Automatic annotation (TrEMBL), chain A:
Family membership noted in the UniProt record: Belongs to the class-V pyridoxal-phosphate-dependent aminotransferase family. Csd subfamily.
Organism from which the protein derives: Paraflavisolibacter caeni
Any one biological process term the GO annotation gives: cysteine metabolic process
Catalyzed reaction equations: (sulfur carrier)-H + L-cysteine = (sulfur carrier)-SH + L-alanine
Phylogenetic lineage: Bacteria, Pseudomonadati, Bacteroidota, Chitinophagia, Chitinophagales
Source domain of life: Bacteria
GO molecular function: cysteine desulfurase activity; pyridoxal phosphate binding
Cofactor: pyridoxal 5'-phosphate
Function of the protein: Catalyzes the removal of elemental sulfur and selenium atoms from L-cysteine, L-cystine, L-selenocysteine, and L-selenocystine to produce L-alanine.
Keywords: Pyridoxal phosphate, Transferase
UniProt protein name: Cysteine desulfurase
Domain called Aminotransferase class V: residue spans: 33-402
Entry's EC annotation: 2.8.1.7
TrEMBL record, chain B:
Pfam families to which the protein is assigned, alphabetical: SufE
PANTHER family xref list: SUFE-LIKE PROTEIN 2, CHLOROPLASTIC, SULFUR ACCEPTOR PROTEIN CSDE
Entry similarity comment: Belongs to the SufE family.
Domain annotation Fe-S metabolism associated: ranges: 15-134
SUPFAM superfamilies with a match to the protein in the record: SufE/NifU
Protein known as: SufE family protein
Length: 414, 146
């Protein structure tokens, strides 16, 4: 049966906002308008409660203890691994490695799989719109191994040129590492197609999911990606926790990233043997509390309904695009047909930093600068942009305030 | 030009000027106006070695030493930073190296602009203050040797 209840009735944004304590604070004497969600999202009370509850009721070191607290902590920690497996639709829980976040996940692959498999003359392909965290680890690897880094170009709308991508692929291509959704432009990249093309050439693919996980449904099995990296703090979870998904066979073939406790089976002063997946890659005491609270964040967005959230955010994006297009002097950077709720723009003869300062003065938090994507800014011939990014709790009224703030700032600055 | 007024006195003048403003909007409007009126730096000075790099905006700074006093000229690609630069030049330029090295620059705090010196602003202003003091120190050392 077709669902006929209008989304608006289900999606009560005022009620949702009350669940995020920070949204009620003031900045510079004005009500906070938080539009820097692509950098990090705010946390609902249930996530904060989960963190407190963990430390109040459970706190113990996991996996090795025999006592009740250790068992409860281990169970809670491993429940999040299961939740991530479902969230990404991975085929087994062993394929989920806890990390600090996307950056550490990518570095893990670069330091382990990369150092084992990349040789002089081999080629790694990334795209023009990568975050520095998906450029620098590969540059470091290429420098060390004498490998070559190739870059997929983009068009003026901020979309990958897929024909050019196909031309970059050679029999020396070992790895394609691309961002699923651009943090600076909002572009949703056709990763499934990218993966298919790479696999046909015998290359493996890492998908940087830092921005995509909060907006899109992720299915690593359907995508057939070899690695998938994401951070919890961008999806209403705590900072310092994220994960790497890797295909089982690849993970089995890789050496550990770090040595220490947990990642071993047996140790003598002469030798050691690795633990099984996924623990082989989780040396030391992990970030248990944040991992536990991450599951609460998954539950929270699941209860709201990802499709409902997406519809709300898409409405905000359309509305904001209309509002900003109507302001003289504003040029939106990134007009991909497929994009998430990120709006990056420049204003003629106005430095993004000045805009950022004046908007902050009105309680409006946006991001200004190169967004850790300097090569992308170079592609557009700009030093940086101002970026407003919208989350499940933002409103059209906030976008109206943004538009007013921008108009006033531009008038003052030009 | 010689700056015979003590640094602290100029700082106090600025604090007094800012006390006339009731709102942040007014303060920023004034700083932006100062920024717009800051004389542009000659293009020959806008080279990499004169760059004080911040994460977002760039500041170019040059110094000159004459008759025991240090003179500064600077510019930025961001106008609010230019306004803040303008005030720093007004306070520090034309003073002796010792006066510059010892300047507390508390006026920045008193007019409520401390956040612009914080690391998070990443706008190069903190580096610029450091660089101005470094120039003063360098001229002092050079002078002492000669």
């Amino acid at each position: 049966m077709i669902q006929t209840a209008p989304i608006q009735q289900i999606y009560d944004v005022a009620a949702i906002r009350r669940q995020f304590p920070v949204l009620s604070r003031e900045v510079k004497g004005k009500r906070l308008i938080y539009l820097d969600n692509a950098a990090t999202s705010q946390k609902p009370q249930v996530v904060l409660d989960a963190l407190t509850r963990y430390y109040t009721d459970i706190n113990a070191n996991i996996h090795r203890g025999i006592h009740t607290l250790a068992e409860e902590a281990t169970a809670a920690f491993e429940l999040t691994r299961d939740a991530i497996q479902r969230f990404l639709n991975a085929s087994s829980r062993e394929e989920i490695i806890f990390t600090k976040g996307t950056t550490e996940s990518i570095n893990l692959v670069a330091y382990t799989w990369g150092r084992q498999n990349i040789k002089a003359g081999d080629e790694i392909i990334i795209s023009t719109m990568e975050h520095h965290s998906n450029i620098v680890p590969w540059l470091m690897l290429c420098e060390e191994k004498g490998a070559v880094l190739k870059v997929i170009p983009i068009n003026d709308d901020g979309e990958l040129l897929m024909d050019e991508y196909k031309k970059l692929i050679t029999k020396r291509t070992k790895l394609v590492s691309v961002v699923h959704v651009s943090n600076a432009l909002g572009t949703i990249n056709p990763v499934k197609e990218i993966i298919k093309i790479a696999h046909e050439a015998g290359a493996i693919v890492l998908v940087d999911g830092a921005q995509s996980t909060v907006h899109l449904d992720i299915d690593v099995t359907d995508l057939d990606c070899d690695f998938f990296a994401f951070s919890g703090h961008k999806l209403y979870g705590p900072t310092g926790i994220g994960a790497l998904y890797g295909k089982r066979d690849l993970l089995l073939s890789m050496h550990p990233f770090q040595g220490g406790g947990e990642m071993i089976k047996e140790v003598s002063f002469q030798s050691f043997s690795y633990n099984d997946l996924p623990y082989k890659f989780e040396a030391g005491t992990p970030n248990v509390a944040d991992a536990v609270a991450l599951k609460t964040a998954f539950d929270y967005t699941e209860a709201l309904g990802k499709e409902n959230i997406r519809q709300h955010e898409n409405e905000l994006l359309s509305y904001a695009t209309e509002q900003l297009d109507a302001i003289e002097g504003i040029r939106i950077i990134g007009r991909a047909k497929e994009k998430i709720s990120v709006l990056s723009f420049v204003v003629e003869n106005v430095h993004p930093q000045d805009l950022g300062i004046l908007l902050d003065n009105r309680g409006i938090a946006v991001r200004t600068g190169h967004h850790c994507a300097q090569p992308l800014m170079d592609r557009f011939g700009i030093p940086g942009t101002t970026r407003a990014s919208f989350a499940l709790y933002n409103t059209k009224e906030e976008i109206d305030e943004l538009a007013i703030g921008l108009q006033k700032a531009i008038k003052l600055l030009s | 030009m010689n700056n015979n007024k003590p640094i602290l006195e100029i700082e106090n003048e600025i604090v007094e000027e800012f006390s006339l403003f009731d709102t942040w909007d007014d303060k920023y409007e004034y700083i932006i106006d100062l920024g717009k009126r800051l004389p542009p730096l000659e293009n020959e000075h806008k080279k990499d070695e004169n760059k004080v790099r911040g994460c977002q905006s760039t500041v170019w700074l040059v110094a000159d030493y004459k008759d025991g006093r240090v003179y500064f000229k600077a510019e930025s690609d961001a106008v609010i930073v230019k306004g803040l630069i303008s005030m720093l030049i007004r306070v520090l330029s034309g003073h002796t190296p010792d006066e510059i090295i010892n300047a507390k620059l508390d006026f920045i705090n008193q007019i409520g602009m401390t956040s612009h010196l914080a690391q998070t602003r990443s706008n190069g202003l903190l580096s610029m203050v450091k660089q101005m003091k470094n120039y003063a120190l360098a001229y002092k050392v050079k002078n002492a040797v000669v």
